[in-house]
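Re: that chain you flagged

S.,

Sorry for the slow reply, it's been a week of failed gels. I finally had a moment to sit down with the sequence you sent. For the record, here it is as I used it:
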Amino acid sequence: MDLAKKAKDLEGKNLDLEEFAFVVSHDLKTPLSNILALSSWLKESVENKDGDAIKTNAELIDKQVTQMDLIIQGVLNYSLQNDVSSNYEEINLDILVNDLAILFTNKNCIITVKSKLPIIEINKTKILQVFQNLIQNGIKYNNKELFEIEIDYKLEQNLHTFSVKDNGIGIEKKYHKKIFELFQRLDVNGMENAGIGLSLVKKIISRNNGEIYLESEVNVGSTFYFTLPA
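Prediction finished late last night. Pasting the structure tokens below so you have them in one place:
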């Protein structure tokens, strides 16, 4: 690895540390503060022998603990992406993605790989995480009776361009940048998430000199595009 590459990697890791110092302290403080308040209310409920209030406060505490667990797991997964540029090998994406499609296909979900995918040199675990996260998002944020996901590919101007299209709930344009930011959560059908999955995807792609973006229409679906140098 040359000095310029080492300097770039170090700069990226320093930015990650600065980001962690802010977002982790903020996002972990919130559920901790909520648990402290709920614990106080729970004590009052016990003293007043209010069974309904005891149950409600206990359930709310459980939700806050679950949210903290999601954040901690996400921090671990995110931090492990710092070695994304290591362990490169030739990966047949056609085999890898079709295996994923088989894994996630069931009576409620159809996954179609429309084009033959290339063989590229990349870290296998990381590119697997990219496709897996995008497929899982298309399934999780979907209100249709049948989930339909299409994966496509084209090569142009020395760029591999991949797309993962779903027929899910869609994302308003004002959120198209926010969803890729660490710990940014959208209130979507009350579903719990730690706001980390797409930031992981963006980090992996960026570290491999690619870009990610999306097109989406609310209640129709979303298409995530990402590029990698050919």
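What I noticed first: The helical segments are 3-47, 51-79, 93-104, 124-140, 197-207.

Talk soon,
D.
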